[in-house]
Backbone:
């Protein structure tokens, strides 16, 4: 079967790889109808994580049809349209009981090599083996497109996690540092949750225009501090969401937040250390936390919001490509020409 694999730093290629088979009674095999390309994939092929070897099948976002199930699988059936969480979880341990699936000892992150634990072949392929299918997979409600459903695998739960864990209250002001897919989705989630104003801080004019068209106040990086102070009468944002994954974007977040405000970082960070502004955080009673999206925890709520139209993620996936065109889509995303692309294995 065809798949997109890591070739070398900054490069991917189409490869022919063996079709997966059931290995455990809790497995399912899914025929992929759409596989997302994520900023995390760009991060991995850019050489920012260990454990990524040539030939690794990439991708952790998939929508498709179940074609085979193991003998213990009960929650999904053959022929069902499903999506997969970007990582697996057992659903039974104390971490899963608390809804903290990322900490599950059975976690395997699709398509990321050994960067986050034991390797598991990725979603950018014609077929994918899904371990712990009863927990990892979810049926997709009717009326939700593949382009919307693919966002529920990772990007949208990450954006919602920032709002949820940031404790956003209706009427508060939110600043989002970074206008990539997760930043844009966090902005839409903040609007759906009742924010009075949502500011997207982004250097790319195309991304600023995208945010503006969807109800956010978009501002370039150099003008952000003055703008946020102006609209908050000098206070700063109640909640700042850091979606860039850089030390510089964390620094910018501390500049934008008000005293006693909150910062939630959902960017993928590779640096081992960062000079934490301890005195400012202490004197201003500022809280900082980090969040990883959890589709298993949030997907039911997100399906309801998407289905009702309260949350409209239309347009985030801007390009639907074949395997042959996937390397070019990776390049376009890396240059910021498009927000997000997805691979359609049926697209010749």
Residues:
């Amino acid at each position: 079967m065809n798949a997109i694999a890591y070739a070398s730093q900054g490069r991917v290629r189409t490869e022919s790889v063996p079709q997966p088979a059931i290995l455990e009674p809790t497995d399912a095999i899914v025929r992929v109808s759409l596989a997302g390309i994520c900023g995390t994939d760009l991060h991995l092929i850019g050489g920012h994580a260990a454990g990524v070897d040539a030939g690794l099948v990439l991708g952790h976002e998939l929508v498709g049809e179940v074609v085979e199930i193991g003998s213990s699988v009960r929650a999904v059936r053959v022929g069902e349209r499903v999506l997969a969480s970007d990582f697996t979880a057992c659903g039974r341990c104390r971490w899963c009981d608390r809804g903290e699936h990322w900490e599950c000892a059975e976690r395997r992150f699709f398509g990321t090599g050994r960067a986050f634990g034991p390797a598991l072949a990725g979603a950018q392929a014609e077929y994918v083996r899904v371990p712990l299918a009863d927990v990892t997979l979810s049926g997709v409600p009717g009326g939700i497109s593949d382009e919307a459903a693919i966002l529920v695998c990772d990007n949208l739960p990450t954006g919602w996690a920032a709002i949820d864990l940031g404790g956003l209250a209706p009427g508060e002001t939110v600043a989002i540092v970074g206008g990539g897919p997760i930043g844009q989705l966090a902005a839409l989630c903040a609007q759906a949750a009742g924010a009075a104003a949502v500011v997207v801080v982004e250097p790319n004019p195309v991304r600023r225009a995208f945010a503006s068209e969807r109800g956010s106040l978009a501002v370039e990086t150099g003008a952000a501090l003055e703008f946020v102070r102006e609209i908050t009468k000098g206070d700063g944002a109640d909640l700042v969401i850091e979606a860039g994954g850089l030390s510089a974007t964390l620094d910018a977040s501390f500049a934008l937040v008000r005293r006693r405000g909150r910062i939630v970082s959902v960017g993928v960070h590779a640096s081992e250390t960062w000079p934490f502004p301890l005195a400012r955080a202490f004197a201003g009673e500022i809280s900082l936390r980090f969040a990883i999206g959890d589709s298993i925890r949030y997907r039911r709520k997100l399906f309801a919001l998407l289905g009702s139209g309260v949350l409209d993620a239309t347009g985030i996936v801007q390009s639907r490509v074949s395997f042959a065109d996937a390397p070019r889509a990776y390049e376009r995303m890396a240059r910021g020409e498009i927000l997000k692309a997805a691979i359609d294995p049926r697209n010749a």
The longest helix spans residues 295-308. The chain is about 30% helix and 25% strand. Residues 181 and 242 are 13 Å apart (CA to CA).
